[in-house]
């Protein structure tokens, strides 16, 4: 198991702590999310981010909400509303709804069976831990499957952060890179800085550097050049929600990389735990794309404005990569290949591909 010192989500003495990723790479600070409102704010403001990590935080968030209810009123009430509230924090990553729905299913079944509130609370805690452990295990398997697609010394391009910070343990798209490092693969990784919030420069570069991976940060607009120069043998990207036909939403800019990869004959792999597959979304058209405040473009993080105050900004946080540009989808149940409507159905039916 990967031994990193930066768990994005941590439960200690039944209190929830989140690594404040807005402060990285300069400061490593945990914040306590003591209420469901704190969890909502931490997700919305990107203290915790990355699809699986958001789901794990939301799973614990539901437990925290129930615990506070029970302590304050002697009764767990309003968990459905708390779940609705959490699901509104960010719309694109389906892991959030996945975790909330798992918790509500546990709660409703036990409540209807007349289980005591103290026992329900205990089960909600156990379910949150199970969601967390499932993601950890998925990342480990995804890392193994992903590594089977790669060869030592390869040049690999990645976008945003789909590592341990965005998930747990090895991460998804960065999983085979971390695992390859442990096994002496000596990859040469190019990390897109990932405007506007710089998850690539701040988080991926930091995370890979911690693991002694050879990582080079590039501006997003350099990706085509590094591909043309022959530096890139494979592109690895995470996913926030994959539709049943294999269209996958990920950080804004991902789809452009996939289109370029096709032009340059470079394989484009998407790393997608089953908690990120939404079979109710038929195509990418059904995936809601979060649009964030334009201020993120204007001021970035902690800096002076870089554009006039009164111009408009358009700040979609994700885009959808059409399935035709995705060479393979790496899940914890194996590597899905086109046609994805068939291979993903198999994955979700619980069989291996
Ligand atoms: O806005 P973010 O930082 O939450 O966006 C994260 C991504 O786009 C990741 O690539 C995605 O969540 C996959 S994480 C395994």
Strand content: 15-25%
How far is it from the N-terminal to the C-terminal residue, by CA? 24 Å
Helical residues, percent = 25-40%
Instruction: Fill in the CATH topology of the largest domain.
Output: Rossmann fold
CATH architecture of the largest domain: 3-Layer(aba) Sandwich
**Mean pLDDT across all amino acids:** 95
Helix- and strand-based class? alpha/beta
CATH class label of the largest domain: Alpha Beta
| Distinct bound molecules | 5-S-methyl-1-O-phosphono-5-thio-D-ribulose
Biggest sheet details = 7 strands, mixed
For the biggest β-sheet, the strand order reads 6-5-4-7-10-13-14
The structural domain count equals: 2
Regions with pLDDT < 50 over 5+ consecutive residues? none
Total DSSP E strands: 14
Oligomer: single chain
* Contiguous helical run count: 11
Q: Please give the radius of gyration in angstroms.
A: 20 Å
Taken in chain order, the helices and strands follow as: EEEHHHHHEHEHEHEEEHEEHEEEH
Keywords: Amino-acid biosynthesis, Isomerase, Methionine biosynthesis
Enzyme class: isomerase
Site (Transition state stabilizer): 160
Binding site for substrate: 49-51, 90, 199, 250-251
């Amino acid at each position: 198991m990967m031994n990193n010192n930066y768990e994005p989500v941590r439960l200690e003495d039944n209190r929830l702590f989140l690594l404040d990723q807005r402060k990285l790479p300069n400061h490593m600070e945990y914040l306590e999310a003591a209420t469901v409102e704190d969890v909502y704010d931490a997700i919305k403001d990107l203290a915790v981010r990355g699809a699986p990590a958001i789901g794990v935080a939301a799973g614990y968030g539901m437990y925290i909400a129930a615990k506070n209810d029970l302590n304050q009123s002697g009764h767990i009430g309003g968990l459905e509303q708390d779940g609705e509230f959490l699901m509104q924090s960010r719309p694109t990553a389906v892991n959030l709804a996945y975790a909330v729905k798992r918790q509500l299913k546990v709660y409703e079944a036990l409540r209807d069976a007349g289980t005591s509130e103290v026992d329900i609370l205990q089960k909600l805690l156990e379910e949150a831990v199970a969601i967390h452990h499932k993601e950890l295990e998925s990342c480990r398997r995804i890392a193994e499957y992903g590594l089977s697609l790669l060869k030592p010394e390869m040049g690999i391009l990645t976008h945003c952060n789909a590592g341990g910070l965005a998930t747990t343990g090895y991460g998804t798209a960065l999983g085979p890179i971390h695992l390859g490092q442990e096994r002496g693969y000596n990859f040469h990784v190019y990390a897109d800085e990932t405007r506007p919030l710089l998850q690539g420069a701040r988080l991926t570069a930091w995370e890979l550097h911690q693991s002694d991976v050879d990582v080079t940060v590039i501006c997003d607009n350099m990706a085509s050049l590094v591909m043309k120069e022959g530096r890139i043998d494979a592109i690895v990207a995470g996913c926030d929600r994959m539709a049943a036909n294999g269209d996958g939403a990920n950080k804004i800019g991902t789809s452009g990389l996939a289109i370029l990869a096709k032009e340059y004959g470079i394989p484009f792999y998407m790393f997608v735990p089953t908690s990120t597959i939404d079979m109710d979304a038929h195509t990418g058209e059904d995936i809601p794309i979060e649009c964030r405040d334009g201020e993120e473009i204007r001021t970035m993080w902690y800096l002076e404005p870089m554009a006039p105050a009164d111009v408009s900004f358009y700040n979609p946080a994700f885009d959808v990569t059409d399935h035709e540009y995705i060479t393979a989808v790496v899940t914890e149940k194996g590597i899905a290949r086109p046609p994805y409507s068939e291979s993903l159905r198999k994955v979700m039916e619980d069989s291996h591909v």
